[in-house]
Amino acid sequence: PIADLCAGIFAAQGILVALLEREKSGQGQWLHTSLLEAMVYMMDFQTSRWLIDGDVASQAGNFHPTSIPTGVYKARDGYMNIAVFGSKIWERFCDILGAPEWVTDARYHDKMGRSVNRDALNAEINRRLAAQDRAYWIERLNAGGVACGLINNLQEVFEEPQVQHLGMVKDVVSSRQGEQKMVGQPMQLERTPSTIARAAPRRGEHTEEILGELGLSPDDLARMKSTGVY
Asked: Is the pTM of this model over 0.85?
Protein backbone atom coordinates (compact mmCIF):
# COMPACT_ATOMS: atom_id res chain seq x y z
CA PRO A 1 0.00 0.00 0.00
CA ILE A 2 1.06 3.56 -0.64
CA ALA A 3 0.97 4.35 3.09
CA ASP A 4 3.57 1.68 3.82
CA LEU A 5 5.82 2.94 1.05
CA CYS A 6 5.60 6.58 2.12
CA ALA A 7 6.15 5.79 5.79
CA GLY A 8 9.21 3.75 4.83
CA ILE A 9 10.61 6.60 2.75
CA PHE A 10 10.05 9.10 5.57
CA ALA A 11 11.67 6.72 8.05
CA ALA A 12 14.71 6.42 5.79
CA GLN A 13 14.92 10.20 5.48
CA GLY A 14 14.65 10.59 9.24
CA ILE A 15 17.44 8.07 9.80
CA LEU A 16 19.73 9.96 7.43
CA VAL A 17 18.97 13.26 9.20
CA ALA A 18 19.62 11.68 12.60
CA LEU A 19 22.93 10.26 11.40
CA LEU A 20 24.02 13.66 10.10
CA GLU A 21 23.03 15.30 13.39
CA ARG A 22 24.94 12.65 15.34
CA GLU A 23 28.10 13.62 13.49
CA LYS A 24 27.81 17.05 15.16
CA SER A 25 26.39 16.20 18.58
CA GLY A 26 27.74 12.70 19.09
CA GLN A 27 24.34 11.66 20.43
CA GLY A 28 21.71 9.31 19.11
CA GLN A 29 17.95 9.83 19.23
CA TRP A 30 14.69 8.00 18.73
CA LEU A 31 12.91 8.34 15.39
CA HIS A 32 9.13 8.09 15.14
CA THR A 33 6.85 7.93 12.10
CA SER A 34 3.57 6.20 11.27
CA LEU A 35 1.22 5.38 8.42
CA LEU A 36 -1.16 8.07 9.68
CA GLU A 37 1.51 10.79 9.67
CA ALA A 38 2.68 9.72 6.21
CA MET A 39 -0.81 9.94 4.72
CA VAL A 40 -1.63 13.30 6.32
CA TYR A 41 1.66 14.70 5.00
CA MET A 42 1.08 13.26 1.52
CA MET A 43 -2.19 15.18 1.15
CA ASP A 44 0.12 18.06 0.28
CA PHE A 45 -1.65 21.29 -0.76
CA GLN A 46 -5.04 19.90 0.25
CA THR A 47 -4.03 20.20 3.90
CA SER A 48 -3.06 23.84 3.31
CA ARG A 49 -6.43 24.52 1.71
CA TRP A 50 -8.06 23.44 4.96
CA LEU A 51 -5.56 24.81 7.48
CA ILE A 52 -5.23 28.25 5.84
CA ASP A 53 -8.56 28.84 4.09
CA GLY A 54 -10.88 26.39 5.85
CA ASP A 55 -11.72 24.87 2.45
CA VAL A 56 -12.82 21.22 2.65
CA ALA A 57 -11.83 19.71 -0.69
CA SER A 58 -14.43 17.57 -2.44
CA GLN A 59 -13.63 14.29 -4.16
CA ALA A 60 -12.25 14.70 -7.68
CA GLY A 61 -11.76 11.06 -8.67
CA ASN A 62 -9.04 10.68 -11.29
CA PHE A 63 -8.83 14.42 -11.85
CA HIS A 64 -6.61 17.04 -10.24
CA PRO A 65 -8.70 18.97 -7.70
CA THR A 66 -7.53 22.46 -8.67
CA SER A 67 -5.65 22.33 -11.99
CA ILE A 68 -8.23 21.78 -14.70
CA PRO A 69 -8.10 20.03 -17.11
CA THR A 70 -5.69 17.55 -15.55
CA GLY A 71 -6.57 13.90 -15.20
CA VAL A 72 -7.60 10.74 -17.03
CA TYR A 73 -9.25 11.07 -20.44
CA LYS A 74 -10.39 8.55 -23.01
CA ALA A 75 -9.26 8.54 -26.61
CA ARG A 76 -10.60 6.17 -29.26
CA ASP A 77 -8.40 3.23 -28.22
CA GLY A 78 -8.05 3.74 -24.48
CA TYR A 79 -7.20 6.01 -21.59
CA MET A 80 -4.47 8.62 -21.30
CA ASN A 81 -3.22 11.28 -18.90
CA ILE A 82 -3.35 14.96 -19.78
CA ALA A 83 -2.08 17.80 -17.58
CA VAL A 84 -2.75 21.42 -18.54
CA PHE A 85 -1.00 23.96 -16.30
CA GLY A 86 -1.17 27.70 -16.95
CA SER A 87 -2.99 29.90 -19.44
CA LYS A 88 -0.46 29.55 -22.28
CA ILE A 89 -0.59 25.76 -22.20
CA TRP A 90 -4.39 25.95 -21.98
CA GLU A 91 -4.44 27.98 -25.18
CA ARG A 92 -2.18 25.48 -26.96
CA PHE A 93 -4.31 22.61 -25.71
CA CYS A 94 -7.46 24.21 -27.09
CA ASP A 95 -5.82 24.72 -30.50
CA ILE A 96 -4.64 21.09 -30.64
CA LEU A 97 -8.14 19.80 -29.85
CA GLY A 98 -9.61 22.08 -32.50
CA ALA A 99 -11.49 24.19 -29.98
CA PRO A 100 -9.83 27.63 -29.95
CA GLU A 101 -13.18 29.13 -28.94
CA TRP A 102 -12.74 27.64 -25.45
CA VAL A 103 -10.06 30.24 -24.73
CA THR A 104 -12.62 33.04 -24.76
CA ASP A 105 -15.61 30.98 -23.60
CA ALA A 106 -16.76 32.48 -20.28
CA ARG A 107 -17.21 28.97 -18.85
CA TYR A 108 -13.62 27.92 -19.52
CA HIS A 109 -11.65 31.15 -19.92
CA ASP A 110 -9.98 31.10 -16.51
CA LYS A 111 -9.08 28.61 -13.81
CA MET A 112 -12.14 29.33 -11.70
CA GLY A 113 -14.50 28.92 -14.64
CA ARG A 114 -12.95 25.60 -15.57
CA SER A 115 -13.28 24.47 -11.96
CA VAL A 116 -16.98 25.34 -11.75
CA ASN A 117 -17.68 23.78 -15.16
CA ARG A 118 -15.33 20.81 -14.78
CA ASP A 119 -17.86 18.13 -15.76
CA ALA A 120 -19.02 19.90 -18.91
CA LEU A 121 -15.42 20.60 -19.98
CA ASN A 122 -14.29 17.05 -19.37
CA ALA A 123 -17.21 15.71 -21.41
CA GLU A 124 -16.26 18.03 -24.29
CA ILE A 125 -12.60 16.94 -24.10
CA ASN A 126 -13.52 13.24 -24.13
CA ARG A 127 -15.86 13.78 -27.08
CA ARG A 128 -13.06 15.32 -29.14
CA LEU A 129 -10.43 12.81 -28.04
CA ALA A 130 -12.69 9.94 -29.10
CA ALA A 131 -12.12 10.86 -32.75
CA GLN A 132 -8.51 9.59 -32.74
CA ASP A 133 -6.25 7.03 -31.05
CA ARG A 134 -3.96 7.90 -28.14
CA ALA A 135 -0.82 7.87 -30.28
CA TYR A 136 -2.29 10.58 -32.50
CA TRP A 137 -3.07 12.86 -29.56
CA ILE A 138 0.14 12.17 -27.67
CA GLU A 139 2.25 13.10 -30.68
CA ARG A 140 0.44 16.40 -31.12
CA LEU A 141 0.14 17.27 -27.46
CA ASN A 142 3.83 16.58 -26.87
CA ALA A 143 4.73 18.71 -29.87
CA GLY A 144 2.64 21.51 -28.36
CA GLY A 145 4.25 21.24 -24.93
CA VAL A 146 1.19 19.78 -23.23
CA ALA A 147 2.06 17.07 -20.70
CA CYS A 148 0.41 13.76 -21.53
CA GLY A 149 1.04 10.05 -21.65
CA LEU A 150 -0.39 6.59 -22.07
CA ILE A 151 -2.17 4.74 -19.30
CA ASN A 152 -0.99 1.20 -19.86
CA ASN A 153 -2.61 -2.03 -18.79
CA LEU A 154 -0.23 -4.61 -17.33
CA GLN A 155 0.47 -6.29 -20.66
CA GLU A 156 1.38 -2.93 -22.17
CA VAL A 157 3.60 -2.10 -19.19
CA PHE A 158 5.82 -5.09 -19.85
CA GLU A 159 5.79 -4.45 -23.60
CA GLU A 160 7.28 -0.99 -23.02
CA PRO A 161 10.79 -0.87 -24.58
CA GLN A 162 12.25 0.90 -21.54
CA VAL A 163 10.86 -1.71 -19.13
CA GLN A 164 12.43 -4.43 -21.29
CA HIS A 165 15.72 -2.51 -21.54
CA LEU A 166 15.91 -2.24 -17.74
CA GLY A 167 15.56 -6.02 -17.42
CA MET A 168 12.84 -5.75 -14.81
CA VAL A 169 11.52 -9.25 -15.50
CA LYS A 170 13.53 -12.11 -13.99
CA ASP A 171 13.29 -15.84 -14.72
CA VAL A 172 12.97 -18.25 -11.79
CA VAL A 173 12.11 -21.93 -11.42
CA SER A 174 9.42 -23.09 -9.02
CA SER A 175 9.57 -26.62 -7.65
CA ARG A 176 5.83 -26.90 -8.16
CA GLN A 177 5.05 -24.77 -11.22
CA GLY A 178 8.28 -24.91 -13.20
CA GLU A 179 9.61 -21.85 -15.02
CA GLN A 180 8.15 -18.54 -13.92
CA LYS A 181 8.73 -14.84 -14.41
CA MET A 182 8.88 -12.35 -11.56
CA VAL A 183 9.52 -8.63 -11.17
CA GLY A 184 13.06 -7.90 -10.05
CA GLN A 185 14.27 -5.18 -7.69
CA PRO A 186 13.56 -1.56 -8.72
CA MET A 187 17.19 -0.51 -8.18
CA GLN A 188 20.43 -1.73 -9.71
CA LEU A 189 23.86 -1.78 -8.09
CA GLU A 190 26.82 -1.77 -10.45
CA ARG A 191 29.15 -4.03 -8.46
CA THR A 192 26.62 -6.20 -6.66
CA PRO A 193 23.47 -6.40 -8.80
CA SER A 194 20.41 -7.95 -7.23
CA THR A 195 19.15 -11.38 -8.20
CA ILE A 196 16.14 -13.52 -7.34
CA ALA A 197 17.56 -16.67 -5.80
CA ARG A 198 14.41 -18.76 -5.91
CA ALA A 199 10.69 -18.66 -6.57
CA ALA A 200 8.17 -18.06 -3.80
CA PRO A 201 7.96 -21.23 -1.66
CA ARG A 202 4.98 -23.41 -0.88
CA ARG A 203 3.88 -23.42 2.74
CA GLY A 204 6.48 -25.33 4.73
CA GLU A 205 8.69 -25.99 1.71
CA HIS A 206 11.86 -24.82 3.47
CA THR A 207 10.99 -25.85 7.03
CA GLU A 208 13.57 -28.65 7.25
CA GLU A 209 16.23 -26.52 5.59
CA ILE A 210 15.71 -23.66 8.04
CA LEU A 211 15.52 -25.89 11.12
CA GLY A 212 18.66 -27.66 9.98
CA GLU A 213 20.47 -24.33 9.72
CA LEU A 214 19.36 -23.64 13.30
CA GLY A 215 21.15 -26.77 14.46
CA LEU A 216 18.47 -29.47 14.61
CA SER A 217 19.72 -32.92 13.63
CA PRO A 218 18.05 -35.21 11.07
CA ASP A 219 16.74 -37.34 13.98
CA ASP A 220 15.21 -34.26 15.60
CA LEU A 221 13.55 -33.32 12.32
CA ALA A 222 12.21 -36.83 11.78
CA ARG A 223 10.75 -36.93 15.31
CA MET A 224 9.14 -33.53 14.93
CA LYS A 225 7.65 -34.50 11.59
CA SER A 226 6.32 -37.82 12.92
CA THR A 227 4.51 -36.04 15.78
CA GLY A 228 2.95 -33.47 13.50
CA VAL A 229 4.98 -30.45 14.64
CA TYR A 230 5.36 -29.53 10.98
From this structure: no
Dump pLDDT digits (tens) for 11-56.
999 999 999 999 999 999 999 999 989 888 888 888 888 888 888 8
Could you report the per-residue pLDDT of 65-100, keeping only the tens digit for each?
888 999 999 999 999 999 999 999 999 999 999 999
What are the start-end ranges of the H helices in the chain? 2-25, 35-42, 45-53, 87-96, 111-116, 118-129, 134-143, 154-159, 161-165, 207-213, 218-226
Q: Which DSSP state fits 171?
A: E
**In this structure, are 33 and 81 located in the same domain?**
no
Amino acid letter for position 157: V
CA–CA dist 201, 217 (Å, integer): 23
Domains of the chain: total:
3
Q: Show the domain range for 32.
A: 2-42
